[in-house]
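User: Fold this, then the next.

Assistant: Folding the first:
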Amino acid sequence: MIVQLSDPHIGAAWAEGDPVAALAAAVDTARRVCPSPDAVLVSGDLSDNAADAEYQQVRELVGRLGAPIYPLPGNHDRREPLRRNFDLAGYGAEPVQYAADLGPLRLVVLDTTRPGEDAGELDTDRLRWLDAELSAHPDTPTLIAMHHPPLLAGIPAWDEIGLPDADRRALAQIVARHQQVRRLVAGHLHRTVATNFAGTSLMVVPSTYVQGKLDFDARELQLAAEPPGFAIHAMTDGELVSHIQPVA
C-alpha cells in the first residue's frame, strides 16, 4: 500500500491552523488505518519556503509511518534543498524525476514544476524521460505521480496555475501508448478531484493543511472550511484501488 500525502506547506501562515500539527494529525490517522504501508508518496509543496528546517520537519513527521519516503517538488519547493534533505538522486536544480519498484506496482515520479512560478510545465526532456521509463517496464502496473494535475478543473483561478494545454496533450500521447499505467495522481489543487486521462484515471488528492473552495466562478484562490485528507493506493487482485481518507 502507498500512503499519499500532499501539500503540507510546512512553514505556511496564510491560513488558520498550524501546518505542522495538521501533518502530524494526518500521519497519526494514516498509522491507524494503514499501519504497515510499503511507501509514502509526498506529492509536492512539502515546504512553504523551501527551507532546510521545514524539509527536516516533514521528513521527521512522515518518517513515523516507518516506510520509504518518495517526495516530489511542488511550486513552493526548490529542487536543490528537496534533493539534499531527502537524499534524492540527481544534481542541483535539474528536475527531480525517478522511479521505484514497490512490489506489484511501479512508481514513476514526474517533475511538473517551473522554478519561480506557480504554474507548471512539462518540457521535451521531461516527457522524453517519462516515455523511456515507461518503455523500459511495459508489463509492470505503474502509478505516475506529479504535483500539477494534467486537467482543466473549470475554475479559472485553478486553471491559471495548471499545466499548459500543449503540455497536457503531449503527456496524454505518451500515457496512451503505455497500457501499464493504472493511474496518475497529483496534488496542487487542495481538494479531491477525479477524471479520466488518456485511457486511464487521474486522481487529485486533498491537502493535509487547508482545502481549496469549490467555486466555478472564482478568479482568485479561495479556501474552504473543509477537513484535510490523504490517499491510500493499494493493489487488490491486480487492480489499483484508491481511497481518500479525511482527517478529523
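Now the next one, as you asked:
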Amino acid sequence: MNTPSGRTIAIDGDDIYFDEWGSGPPLLLLHGLTGSCRDWQHVFDLSALGSSYRVIAPDARGHGRSTNWSGAFTFRRCALDVLALLDHLAIDRVRAVGMSLGAKTLLHVATQAPSRIDRMIVVSATPRFPGATRALFRAAASALHSPEEWAEMRAKHVRGDEQIAALWQLPAAFAADATDMTFTADRLAAITAPTLVVAGDRDPLYPVELAVELYRCMPHASLWVVPNGGHGPIFNEQRDEFVRRALPFLSAR
C-alpha cells in the first residue's frame, strides 16, 4: 500500500501518532519544529517512495496528532520516542531523514543506539547551540503571530490553540537548556552510520561552520552545503536537487 495509513501508540503516557506506508527496507522521516509528518509531501513523492521503502513518519511529541501532556520537551526525549516506536514495530535497523528538530533527534538516536541507524540524512543539524542561536530562540519565543500563521498551524496541529502556543514557546526552553544539545567530537565519533549532512550556507540559526564540524567529527559523513540555502533547504526551489541527492544516498549499500 503506497497511501499513508495513520495510527497512534502509547509511549510513556503520551500518544505518538505516525503514518506508515509502502514496503521494503524501513525508512524513517522526522519533520522539523512546529511541523508534522505530513510536511514530507512537500519534499518527496510519497507514493513513489513507498514503492521502494516501508516508510514510517511520526509526529514528534506535542506536534500534529501527538500529545505531550507534561509539557517537557527535549531532543533526547524525542530520540527515546523514536527508539520506542522502532521497538513497537519490531524494526532493528532503519534508514532515516531528519530535518532540523528531526535531524537533532537523529543525532541523539545515532549516539545512544548506533546499531539502529543504517544510514541517515541530517538537514539543518548542529552539535550545539551557540550564544547567538540562543538569542534568536528567545526572540522567536516572544514573537507575535499573524492570523495567517495561526491558521497554518491549526491546519497541522489538531489539539487546539494551547498546543500551538506551547510549540511556539519551545525555542525559549531550548535557549535555557545547557545539556540537551552538547555533542562533543567523541560522542559524534561513535556514530557508525554513513551520514549525509545537509546545510544551507545562509542558515541564520546554525552557521555552516557547525555543519562542517559535524562532517569532520562523524567517521562516515559526507557534506552538502546548499548555495543560498537558509534553514531547512529542502523545500520549494531546493526540493528537486535535494531529492536527486537524497534518494541515491539512501539506497546505497
